[in-house]
Specification:
Elements lengths: L4 E6 L10 E6 L7 E11 L1 H7 L17 E9 L11 E4 L13 E5 L3 E3 L6 H5 L2 H14 L7 E4 L5 H12 L3 E5 L5 H7 L3 E3 L6 H4 L3 E6 L7 H4 L4 E9 L6 H10 L2 E4 L6 H12 L7 E6 L3 H8 L7 E5 L3
Parallel strand pairs: 8-9, 8-11, 9-10, 11-12, 12-13, 14-15
Antiparallel strand pairs: 1-2, 3-4, 3-6, 3-15, 4-5, 5-7
Length: about 325
């Protein structure tokens, strides 16, 4: 095959998983300050299938589109001015978000400082599962909420990609962690550091917990989860509402209760990725990959992910 093309999964129009098409497209070239990375694995996130369906970040994309923001791979080439990376370096990243990054492909280009060296203890499939989910959890807990030791942190949807990392980061920060998940996930989440488990399929969390300082809400308006979180949050506490911003009902209830709210959107952050890699290599944090798929199986992976029953992350293996 020509060195000027690459394998990729593209969409020509928004819709169901069937719009994901494997083929060959032009290979990108790095501009000054950018690197060309040969992608070994690409993580899959809910924003991927929401965007594919015309939701999520769809309004910021241009068709045809290569989905995917999570990548792990090896630097193939560096553009003029790059001094922090060199060909052969193993890196991982969430480049460009929310602009298109083109992760479901053999190569991506992005500014060198969107990348960090991948955790040395992980293979590419596990490393590719980290960036978007780990940065979401880290930035929400550290930068937005400023979680302190001794605080009580409630993580909704704790068994998911972001949730299982948020549990570990909150515990690392010295917090007491309350987690909502179905009962089969409880033992695993306790291994990751959860102190108090709530089976959301059998209990309403507001009936069994309280005194929460920070809520990491990964559910949002579904089942009124965001608004219901106000009743378990201390005055002065914070509800970080991640999917879709702060719902109107949350805003209406939070003010009179003295509870703060914050919308949230993750950003590329190579210093945080470097910190997270250090925690992983030290054994303080681990990432769960439920299943890997070949690049050409992207549609199958999306169908599984949209069922919202995944423990941890799904990953596409691309090279190697």
């Amino acid at each position: 095959m020509s060195e000027h093309t690459m394998r990729a999964v593209t969409i020509d129009g928004f819709g169901g998983p069937e719009v994901l098409t494997a083929g060959r497209v032009a290979r990108p070239e790095p501009l000054p300050t950018e690197v060309l990375v040969r992608v070994h694995a690409a993580g899959i996130n809910p924003v991927d299938w929401k965007t594919r369906a015309g939701q999520g970040m769809a309004g910021l994309q241009t068709l045809p589109l290569i989905l995917g923001w999570d990548v792990s791979g090896v630097v193939e080439e560096v553009g003029f001015g790059v001094t922090t990376l060199a060909p052969g370096d193993e890196v991982y990243a969430m480049p460009w978000f929310p602009r298109p990054a083109g992760g479901y492909a053999e190569f991506v280009t992005a500014p060198s400082r969107h990348f960090a060296r991948k955790p040395a203890s992980l293979g590419h499939a596990e490393a590719a599962a980290l960036p978007l989910a780990a940065l979401t959890a880290w930035q929400a807990l550290v930068d937005t909420a400023g979680v302190q030791a001794g605080q009580r942190v409630l993580v909704h949807a704790a068994a998911g990609g972001v949730g299982h990392l948020a549990v570990q980061f909150a515990k690392h920060l010295g917090a007491e962690v309350v987690a909502t998940a179905s009962a089969p996930r409880h033992a695993w989440l306790k291994e990751l550091g959860a102190d108090e488990m709530i089976d959301y399929t059998r209990q309403r969390f507001e009936d069994v917990t309280g005194g929460i300082d920070v809520v990491i809400d990964l559910v949002g308006s579904q089942d009124d989860t965001a608004a219901r979180s106000v009743s378990v949050t201390r005055p002065g506490g914070l509800v970080v509402s991640i999917p879709g911003g702060v719902p109107e009902r949350l805003s209406l209830l939070a003010g009179p209760a003295g509870v703060r709210t914050s919308p949230f959107l993750v950003e590329p952050d190579s210093p945080a990725l470097a910190t997270i890699a250090g925690l992983v290599d030290a054994g303080a944090v681990r990432v769960e990959v439920e299943r890997t798929f070949a690049l050409e199986q992207a549609a199958e992976a999306h169908r599984l992910g949209e069922g919202n029953r995944t423990r941890g992350k799904l990953v596409l293996t691309v090279t190697g």
